[in-house]
Design goal:
Elements: H1 15-22, H2 29-37, H3 46-53, H4 58-62, H5 66-69, H6 77-94, H7 107-118, E1 125-131, E2 137-145, H8 155-164, E3 169-175, H9 185-200, E4 204-211, E5 216-218
Parallel strand pairs: 3-4
Antiparallel strand pairs: 1-2, 1-3, 4-5
Helix pairs in contact: 2-3, 6-7, 8-9
Length: 225
C-alpha cells in the first residue's frame, strides 16, 4: 500500500511551504532531507525515503558512502549528490576557524570546529593549525590520511610545513573514526616525537587535539605532552 505523497498533503502541511512560512527550524530531520530529495519513488513519498535514510541517525547519514547509496529506492545519483553537497556545506560552515586574526587560545572552540569538519570520516586524518608568534592562525592544513602509526607518519613533514609557513607554533589534530577520542599508545608516542622534533627546530607544539564524535581530548590539558 502506498503512503501519502507530499503533493497530496494540504499546502500548509508540505515541508517546503512550512519551511517558507515557519522557518527551517520548524521541520524535522526527515522533512529537511525530503526537501533535498525533491521526490520519492513509485508509491513512496520523499519523506518516507528520507526516514529510511535516517534510520540509523543523522550522524550515520553524514558518514555514509554516497556511491553505495545510489540505487536505494528513491535515491539516484543526482539526489545523492545534492545531499552530500548540503552536508559538506554544513560541515564547512561549522568548521570555519575565522578568528579575525585574534590569538587562538580557546581549545574548546577549535575542537568544536574541527569535530564538525572531521568527525564524519571513516579513516583517521591528521592535520595541523600553523600559528604565528602571537598564536594567530596562518593556515590550517590536512597532512595525512590513514592510521596514525609512528612508523608511517613523519614528524618531519609537519615541521617542514611549519618552517615553510614561517609558523612559530603548531596545534596538531586528528580524528578517531570510532568516535572515542581516548588517546592510544601510538598517539602518545607520535606526540612525544613531534614535540622533540619541534624543539630542535624552534617550533613550539602547543597541543594535540584528538577528535571523536561530539567529544575531544587535549593532550596538553591532560598533561600528556
Amino acid at each position: 500500500m502506498s503512503d501519502t505523497l507530499i503533493g497530496d498533503l494540504p499546502l500548509d502541511e508540505r515541508p517546503r511551504e512550512r519551511l517558507m512560512n515557519q522557518g527551517s527550524q520548524s521541520l524535522s530531520d526527515a522533512e529537511l532531507l525530503a526537501i533535498l530529495l525533491g521526490s520519492g519513488s513509485r508509491g513512496r513519498s520523499a519523506i518516507t525515503v528520507a526516514r529510511e535514510l535516517l534510520g540509523d541517525g543523522l550522524q550515520t547519514l553524514s558518514r555514509r558512502n554516497w556511491q553505495a547509496t545510489v540505487g536505494i529506492a528513491g535515491v539516484g545519483a543526482a539526489k545523492a549528490a545534492r545531499i552530500e553537497a548540503a552536508l559538506e556545506l554544513g560541515r564547512r560552515l561549522a568548521s570555519r576557524l575565522d578568528t579575525g586574526r585574534e590569538p587562538m587560545n580557546d581549545p574548546d572552540s577549535m575542537a568544536r570546529a574541527l569535530i564538525a569538519r572531521y568527525s564524519h570520516y571513516v579513516q583517521e586524518r591528521l592535520g595541523a593549525l600553523f600559528l604565528d608568534s602571537k598564536h594567530r592562525l596562518i593556515r590550517e592544513r590536512e597532512i595525512y590520511v590513514g592510521t596514525l602509526n609512528a612508523t608511517t607518519v613523519s614528524t618531519r613533514d609537519i615541521i617542514r610545513i611549519a618552517l615553510e609557513e614561517h609558523a612559530a607554533s603548531v596545534i596538531v589534530f586528528h580524528n578517531h573514526p570510532s568516535g572515542d577520542p581516548s588517546p592510544s599508545g601510538e598517539d602518545l608516542l607520535f606526540t612525544r616525537r613531534l614535540v622533540d622534533a619541534g624543539r630542535l627546530m624552534s617550533v613550539d607544539i602547543l597541543d594535540h587535539l584528538i577528535l571523536g564524535t561530539n567529544r575531544w581530548v587535549s593532550l596538553k590539558r591532560r598533561g600528556m605532552m
